[in-house]
Amino acid sequence: MSDGIELYLIQSPETAPADDNARGYNRDLLKAYKNGVPVSDITNFIHRVMIEVGVKRRRISKLVIGSHGTGIPSGFGNFYIGRNLIDQDDDEKINRLRVLAPLFEKDADVYIMACRTGHATKLLQKVSRALGGVTVHGYTNYITTTNYWLWTSIDEGVGDSYAIYPDTSFEEVHVGKHIICWPTECINASHLPR
Q: Is residue 178 part of a domain?
């Protein structure tokens, strides 16, 4: 069992698009991850990671980056760290994360909790490489939160969801995938036991 620390860094609601739904998602992530910390941009993100590791004097075993994002099956995708958009063609921002690589345990996991970023495997591989080869997780479906007032739940969309639309012959199946990436490969981990 790892004695590493777990960090939950969430895109600050104030940096999300100015609508209640978008900002509400970020607020719900902060509520769901009890120790979640809002970050305003990539500089704030890097400082927060360094402070947490310095104070606790342990390396990171798990990092959750909660934010808005997107992805399409052709492989394009992105996610936010605070107000900064991160995509596979933005090597400057991705390479800024390299300073954090020594702060991770060898078998650390990084979860990108942003909608559909599992499609962006090249991006996930670059993030893994920048962070020293850690395992990076992404999801191909929408990440949703539900606020029950007393608690909040998160659904990464990996379970089967099936909808039949009344008065039509239209049926829809939403099956998201859990994608795991390292610097040189990605796999579909949806079928693996949790």
A: yes
169 contact partners, CB below 8 Å, separation of at least 6: none
Closest residue by Cα to residue 64 from 35, 97, 105? 35
Q: Report the domain count for the chain.
A: 1
Q: How many whole angstroms separate alpha carbon 149 and alpha carbon 95?
A: 39
- Range of 60's domain? 5-188
How do residues 36-81 score in pLDDT, each as one tens digit? 999 999 999 999 999 999 999 999 999 999 999 999 999 999 999 9
- Pairwise CA distance, residues 179 & 133, whole Å: 15
Kindly state the DSSP code that residue 104 receives in the 8-state scheme: E
| The residue count for the chain | 194
What mean pLDDT value characterizes the chain?
89
How does strand 77-81 pair with strand 5-11?
A: unpaired
* 193 within some domain: no
CA pair distance 82, 64, nearest whole angstrom:
13
pLDDT band at 170 (very low <50, low <70, confident <90, very high): very low
Query: At 193, is the pLDDT very low, low, confident or very high (cuts 50, 70, 90)?
Result: low
Pairing of strands 152-155, 84-87: unpaired
